[in-house]
Amino acid sequence: TGRNGTYNELMERLPRWKELIDLNGGQILKTVAIPELLYEDVKMIYYGGFKRCFLNFFRPYGASYELDQIKQLETEYHRVIKDFHMKPNFTLTDVNRYQEHWREQQGNLYVPHCGINAMGKAIGPDGMIYPCDDAVLLGEEYVMGSVWDGVDKAKEKLLRKKLNKLPDKCDGCELKCYPCPVCSVLNTDELASDPRDWFCELRKMQFRVVNQYLPKVPFKVVSGSF
Ligand code: SF4
Ligand code: SF4
């Protein structure tokens, strides 16, 4: 892959990647690790000819921003949206996603998009069945069956109940981030640890920004006979 090869090798492969992404309706996943590089990176992705890009900000647990970087992220996020989002043939899909989340939250329609309550299943390399793909990393304690014996329904119920837990800090917060319970265990050794302040400020910032770019007609009205 590009990560292991030289810059020239990466450039040679670019047209093929674009072709495959276009064919499969895929997108570039850009992790926003360094705020000051955000604009230049999105510019490269846009001029590289890609059509969709999802800006992946850090999650509540694991790699983190400093609280004082959120302001800079906000400025840069505005700049990339203004200059690149919804250009002909280019969409920052995270903007659409968070605008949609906001509408669902306001309408009390929000259901966390999480494999735990969507009855996800993942098979680990050991043949064991886990309640979502990342839960495979949690090991034996989170096994709910195996490819040989199928899912143990009682264990499954217990595990989903155990994992479907919100941090105390999120109780009653209207943003309903649903911080990933598996990542909480993996990074803090506890279920539903309180996210740190930088994450809450990041999430507020994301909604603050995307809500300034809401489409004029947010809902498509489809006419038809009933
Ligand atoms: S628990 Fe975390 S990793 Fe698993 S499906 Fe939910 S959000 Fe994704
Ligand atoms: S903003 Fe913070 S407190 Fe509110 S739901 Fe998100 S993580 Fe929880």
Describe the protein's architecture and organization:
InterPro entries: 4Fe4S-binding_SPASM_dom, Aldolase_TIM, rSAM_sf. This is 4Fe4S-binding SPASM domain-containing protein. It is a single chain. With 226 residues, this protein is an alpha/beta fold. The chain folds into two domains: 7-111 and 200-213, no CATH class; 122-190, no CATH class. Helices cover 40% and strands 9% of the residues. The chain contains seven helices and seven strands, in the order H-E-H-E-H-E-H-E-E-E-E-H-H-H. The strands form two sheets. A four-stranded antiparallel sheet has the order 4-5-6-7. Strands 1-2-3 form a three-stranded parallel sheet. The radius of gyration is 20 Å and the shape is globular. The chain binds iron/sulfur cluster (SF4) (2 copies). One iron/sulfur cluster (SF4) binds next to helix 6.
Element layout with pairings:
Elements: H1 7-24, E1 28-31, H2 38-47, E2 52-56, H3 70-84, E3 91-92, H4 93-106, E4 122-123, E5 128-130, E6 145-146, E7 150-151, H5 153-163, H6 181-188, H7 197-210
Parallel strand pairs: 1-2, 2-3
Antiparallel strand pairs: 4-5, 5-6, 6-7
Helix pairs in contact: 2-3, 3-7
Residues 114-116, 120, 132, 134-135, 180-183 line the site of one iron/sulfur cluster (SF4).
Précis, in short:
The protein is α/β, with parallel strands linked by helices and 226 residues long.
What are the main properties of this structure?
globular; 2 domains; about 230 residues; three-stranded parallel beta sheet; Aldolase_TIM; binds iron/sulfur cluster
